[in-house]
Each structure stands twice: as structure tokens, then as C-alpha cells.
Design a protein that fits this description.
This protein has about 150 residues and is α+β, with helices and mostly antiparallel strands. It has 5 helices and 6 strands. Helix content is about 40%, strand content about 20%. Helix 2 crosses helix 3. Keywords: DNA-binding, Transcription, Transcription regulation.
């Protein structure tokens, strides 16, 4: 799918507010509601829009501790990698996962209720027996998330 300036504007507006109606989009973009609807459907079908969801504060889920966990695998064999990927897929504390370059193979963003629960998570990661090194960093304050500044100075 080729993306034009109208599509880019629709994507940007929906990224800021996924609840916009086609009528509201049409007024902001300068197209008819039916054209906006067709374009939105095409963007969804082309998987340029991956979904719509509510962004919740960690305290809403009683998961106020955020940790960034760097993972280095023992090796990159198929079984080892599959075991680790299956773990991050099923463990609800892992909210985002990235394959990275540099010292770590993966970076996990995790949310848990307290430090004891974080310790349990780290122990569960080690039980996959796929890990050679873990480095855990606890987030003290969220300053910017999803492109939005949280704390004003």
C-alpha cells in the first residue's frame, strides 16, 4: 500500500486520539467521512494500524513498579531462542519486548506490583535455562511515554 499525505495525517491524528470518529477525522483532514472511513479500513487491512486500546496508568492495574530488563541468551540456538520467546509471550509481567543490538540480546519492559514480585519475575526468567546474563533497572519516574510528556517541569 502506498501512503500519501492524507494517510499520514490520519495516522498521526489516530495515534494522538484513537477514538476519533470518521466525521471528526474528515473535518481535521479535509476529506469526506466516507473517504476517511475507506482510508482507515485500508490502513487497518494493510496493518499500518495495529489496533485501538486504552492506555492505562500502571496504578490502575496495581502494577506500579516498572523495570527494564536486559537479557543475554546462553546461545542463539533454535531451542534456546524458542524457549525464551515462549516465556515472554506467556508471562503477563512482560508488557513489551525488543530484540536489540549491543551487549544485550533482548530488552524487556515489565510491570509488577512490588519488588518481591520483580524478584519472582527475574527468578522465572532464569528458570527458562536459556539466559546467561540479566541486568535489571527499576524505573523511578515515567517522564515520557507513547510520545506524551507525563511530568511537566
Amino acid at each position: 500500500m502506498e501512503v500519501d499525505d492524507y494517510d499520514l495525517k490520519i495516522l498521526g491524528l489516530l495515534q494522538d486520539n484513537g477514538r476519533l470518529t470518521n466525521q471528526e477525522l474528515s473535518e481535521l483532514v479535509g476529506l469526506s467521512p466516507s473517504q476517511c472511513s475507506r482510508r482507515r479500513i485500508n490502513l487497518e487491512n494493510s496493518q499500518l494500524i495495529l489496533g485501538y486500546h486504552a492506555r492505562l496508568a500502571p496504578r490502575a492495574l496495581q502494577q506500579e513498579v516498572i523495570a527494564m530488563i536486559e537479557i543475554k541468551l546462553l546461545n542463539h540456538g533454535q531451542n534456546n531462542t524458542a524457549t525464551f520467546l515462549a516465556f515472554i509471550d506467556q508471562d503477563k509481567a512482560v508488557v513489551e519486548a525488543f530484540k536489540t543490538t549491543g551487549e544485550a540480546d533482548y530488552l524487556l519492559k515489565c510491570t509488577v506490583s512490588n519488588l518481591d514480585t520483580l524478584n519472582d519475575l527475574v527468578n522465572r526468567i532464569f528458570t527458562t535455562q536459556a539466559i546467561s546474563h540479566i541486568k535489571t533497572t527499576v524505573v523511578l519516574e515515567r517522564l515520557k511515554e507513547h510520545g506524551t510528556t507525563i511530568t511537566k517541569f
